[in-house]
Each structure stands twice: as structure tokens, then as C-alpha cells.
Design a protein that fits this description.
single chain; 337 residues; alpha/beta; TIM Barrel; eight-stranded parallel beta sheet; 17 helices; globular; binds hypoxanthine; binds zinc ion
């Protein structure tokens, strides 16, 4: 491994944009399908991987929702989460704020409790095994309607002490943030943190809406904010954290190649960008793979890497004292390296 890759893997970091269903590896898809007696439309792992050629977000979502169909039991969700944590334990990852999509499961008859209990069990085990802390973020599927989002929030009620916040994902264009203004207000009234995918494929106007109508605490992706100078000014002034996902952007054709990725420009503009994997099993890399690929493509300096690592903790929903410990560990690491 190169010196840069070694430095990156050892750097303490958090992952703030990870869809746990997007960590389902093809091998695991076959294993879960076998034990749950579910037929898959693929004959082999190679055939599944060959299907992972996407030209936009919807191409990916179609196959991602299909893959999630093998997840049936609490054990499946626990195993899924643990397999993810085992991978990022080797990436210098100390904290994860993971998304889950309850509607993808409840709409096929899997109770909310099966999903949440399984994921929470995996998260607790990851803390014991790998000393990785984690928090759960419930995402509403934006291609479904407001009432379905409210029903999901009601189903989550018994779990709200173990869910840090709500998010908004799935097909962006045609489903602006404003569609979910009332359910986000209800979530805020319950003390939940708020995040939303915006400006991945959708226009900068959707980012404005996420700020002004949803009142998000953090922005997922946000790439297209760069098309709007006033918006960049607003994001910088507010110290808004952006959860950027380089390999996802490449695979979903948000950027033409990694050399054209806006991450370095975001940092130069003073935006609080972070690096994340999004759906690592589908996009060709886990947390450190994203860091290494984008660092090589853009020639990021060590000082920029330390800034990205610090942004991942200062933009997290950890308590300030916990975040401060991680920030100090980054300084200590960078000085010793
Ligand atoms: N964008 C929107 N919805 C998603 C994504 C994404 O990158 N990954 C999983 N659901
Ligand atoms: Zn995402």
C-alpha cells in the first residue's frame, strides 16, 4: 500500500452518509436468498456485479430495492450491519451515522421492529467488537407520498429514543424537499435531527428548499450547490456540513471522472465537506476506498485530509465533548505521521 493510503487508513474518521441496505454484497445477497428461500433473478455473483452498470440514480435504485428483498429477519439486518462494520473497522472508521429505509421493508410486510431491532443489535455488537460508535437515521422515501412518511414516523415512535434523526432519499428529481415539509416539522418537534439528500441530481433550488423549508442540520451530497454562488455563500456562512460521496458520484454519472470531482473546490470555497461511501457494495468501494480514490484523483494534501477527517466529526451528531476527543486524536495522528 502506498504511503498516502496508509496515512488515510490510519486517520480517525467518521462515516456520515451510508445506506445500510447499500452495503449488501452480492455474496451476502445469495446467502440471505438461500436461507430465506427467495428466488433471485441472477444465476451468479458475477452476474449480479455485471448488472451494476448505472447511468443515473434511478438505474441504481431499481436494482437496490430489488436486492433489499432478500432481507427478511432480524438476524439478516444484524448480519448486514455487522458485515459493514467489520469492513470499515479496517478503514480507521470510529463512528458511523447510518441511514435505513424502513418503507423498503414495511411495504413488503417486514415489521418496522424487525428492521430496527436487527440493525440496533448489529450496532451494539460493533461497539463491543470494533469500538465503533454509531447512530441510526431513518430515511423517508421521497418517491412515496407525505402520508406514507407520516405513517413511517408513527411506526418509529417506540424507537425514537434510539434514532438520532430523519433523512430523505430515493428518486430526487420531481420530488422536491418541500413535499416533506410537514413531516420534517413533526420530526423536529420530536427532537430529531434533520438531514436530506439534495443537489445530487436535483437542482440547487432543492438545496435552498432543504435549508428553508426542511431546516436541515446537514446536507447529503449537495454537489449542485456549486452552480449557485449565493447558495455557496449561505452554506459557508452557516457552516453546513455536506456529506459527499465520490465513488457514488462516479458510478451514477454525477461526475464524468474523479478528476472532475468538486471535492477539492468545495474545500477551497470553505464548505464543510466530508467523504463517504453512500452504497459501498454497489459503487465499488467502502469508506477508505473513497478517500484513497478521490485523494489520488485530486492530489489532496495531508492538511486537506485532516480537514476532511475533522469535518466528519464536527458535522456528526455526537455530543460536543465526544467530537472534541476525536478532533484531538486527528491532531495527534497528523503530528505523529
Ligand atoms: N441517492 C438517493 N437515494 C439513495 C441513494 C442515493 O445516493 N442511495 C440509496 N438511496
Ligand atoms: Zn445516499
Amino acid at each position: 500500500m502506498s504511503q498516502t493510503a496508509d496515512f488515510i487508513r490510519g486517520l480517525p474518521k467518521a462515516e456520515l452518509h451510508l445506506h445500510i441496505e447499500g452495503s449488501l454484497e452480492p455474496e451476502q445477497m445469495f446467502e440471505f436468498a438461500r436461507r430465506n428461500r427467495i428466488a433471485l433473478p441472477f444465476a451468479s455473483v458475477e452476474e449480479v456485479r455485471a448488472a451494476y452498470a448505472f447511468s443515473n440514480l434511478q438505474d441504481f435504485l431499481d436494482i437496490y430495492y430489488q436486492g433489499a428483498g432478500v432481507l427478511q429477519t432480524e438476524t439478516d439486518f444484524r448480519d448486514l450491519a455487522l458485515a459493514y462494520f467489520a469492513r470499515v473497522a479496517a478503514d480507521g472508521c470510529r463512528h458511523v451515522e447510518l441511514f435505513f429505509d424502513p418503507q423498503t421493508h414495511t411495504d413488503r410486510g417486514i415489521p418496522f421492529a424487525v428492521v430496527a431491532d436487527g440493525l440496533l443489535a448489529g450496532m451494539a455488537e460493533a461497539q463491543r467488537r470494533y469500538e465503533i460508535s454509531s447512530k441510526l437515521i431513518l430515511c423517508f422515501l421521497r418517491h412515496l407520498d407525505e402520508e406514507a412518511a407520516f405513517a413511517t414516523l408513527r411506526a418509529a415512535e417506540p424507537y425514537l429514543d434510539r434514532i438520532v434523526g430523519v433523512g430523505l432519499d430515493s428518486s430526487e428529481v420531481g420530488h422536491p424537499p418541500a413535499k416533506f415539509e410537514r413531516v420534517f416539522r413533526a420530526a423536529r418537534e420530536r427532537g430529531l435531527k434533520l438531514v436530506a439528500h439534495a443537489g445530487e441530481e436535483g437542482p440547487s433550488a432543492y438545496v435552498w428548499e432543504a435549508l428553508d423549508r426542511l431546516h436541515v442540520d446537514r446536507l447529503d451530497h449537495g454537489n449542485r450547490s456549486l452552480e449557485d454562488e449565493a447558495l455557496v455563500g449561505r452554506l459557508v456562512a452557516e457552516g453546513m456540513t455536506l456529506t459527499v460521496c465520490p465513488l457514488s458520484n462516479l458510478k451514477l454519472c454525477v461526475v464524468k471522472d474523479l478528476e472532475a470531482h468538486p471535492l477539492k473546490r468545495m474545500l477551497q470555497l470553505g464548505l464543510r465537506a466530508t467523504v463517504n461511501s453512500d452504497d459501498p457494495a454497489y459503487f465499488g468501494g467502502y469508506l477508505a476506498d473513497n478517500w484513497i480514490a478521490v485523494t489520488k484523483a485530486l492530489g489532496l494534501a495531508r492538511a486537506e485530509l485532516a480537514t476532511l477527517a475533522k469535518n466528519s466529526f464536527s458535522g456528526s451528531f455526537l455530543e460536543p465533548a465526544e467530537a472534541a476527543e476525536h478532533l484531538a486524536s486527528i491532531d495527534a495522528y497528523a503530528q505523529a505521521a
